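sorry for the late reply, my laptop died twice this morning and i had to redo everyting from scratch. anyway the thing you sent over, i finally got around to it. pasting the sequence first so we're on the same page, its 428 residues, then the predicted structure underneath. double check i copied it right bc i was rushing
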Amino acid sequence: MCAAAFSCAVPLQGRLTSPDARIGGHQPPYFGYGGPKDDRAPDLPLVYLPRGLDNSSGAQVAIDSPHWQELAGQLIHTSYGAGRIFLLLWDEVRGQPQGAIVPIAGEFRSAIHRACFHPHDGHLYVSGMAGWGTYTTEDGCFQRVRWTDKKVPLPRKVHVHEDGVWIEFTRPVRKAAIADVSRQFAQCWNYRYSGAYGSPEFSSRHYGVPGHDVLTISSVEWLDHGRRLFVAMDDLQPVNQLHLSLELGQPRPLELFLTVHALDRPFHPRRAANEPRITAAHPILTDLAVNLHKKPNRWQKPIEGARAITMKTGPNLTYRQTEIRVRPGEPIRLTLRNPDVLPHNWVLARPGTLRTVGEAANRLIADPRAYALQYIPPSDDVLVHTDIVPPGGAFTVYFRAPKEPGRYPYLCTFPGHWMVMNGVLIVE
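ok and here's the structure:
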């Protein structure tokens, strides 16, 4: 087992949709998916699971027991690595399957391979044996899971919208339990699609930077007398992993791990109509585009006698130097050093085009090629640029200053940075 974080991808088993509606467009086989073919992305799994939940998946079984009728039509997922079972909830947006994993309390003595509902007593029976990579303690087990009458609300359906997540429960949730929004928590992250066995967990907002992004839960709406909740998040985007931790008045928070391939129309259309948004490209398309479309920077050829200028990034999305003075046509060797914790670049633009170039860069989040193109918008207003410089890195470009005197803006075109991260190159 690799030391990096590992995500188990659970394929679709027995529930297929139109292949033209999904990324990749292939019919999935029973035993997982193949990789990209002919520059075409593979099909997407129903869910990803973080290694902390399941480092080696077992199988799934459809819920068809009369005792479990409140969850009929959903799946139980077994974990070989953790010796646990999970609810596997099915969601679909415009033909794209996706889902959510909900941990169920309890652990088994050994690794769980298979599960089955008994046709006579209706209980769930699980079995398995240890072989490799399991955290369980016994060589094998054969155990039963009984449905009890404890009135604990369990999620039975989920659906992801542009402005949040809708959840339906088996039992009503008390209204008082969700009154304090500050007790609810949401975060997200992505995995790197590659040939490696597992992946670190990466920021969904800053490509290639390890870490999670916290999302703001603006409200939790109590609907249908507590049978349904809508968790409102205005900054939700397609991500490999969305983690919700909800305090519902139970001894432990409810944990949901959702895979968000696609977003449905806003749950509150009127509110959304006044707030235009750009939906980001799917993470797997960005990973593939980095390999297919990345090109060398054309300003890396040295110029003899070039004047050396070092730019450094500062805290809170800034350049430490917000003004540079040069002579017309002067040869320049500019190095961008990035001691910040976020990735940045340096882009020189024509006079008066700071906003035009910056807003065009913001729209690039919808383009899966954005990182491969260094977040540089296709515009004649861009004169020179560095590549994206990761935290702790540096990048050098060579160019001649513009011949016409004037004030030439420079900016970071990583989406959302340019409004405060800019300066001016003065040709005099």
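The first strand starts at residue 7 and ends at 10.
thats about all i looked at so far, will dig more tmrw
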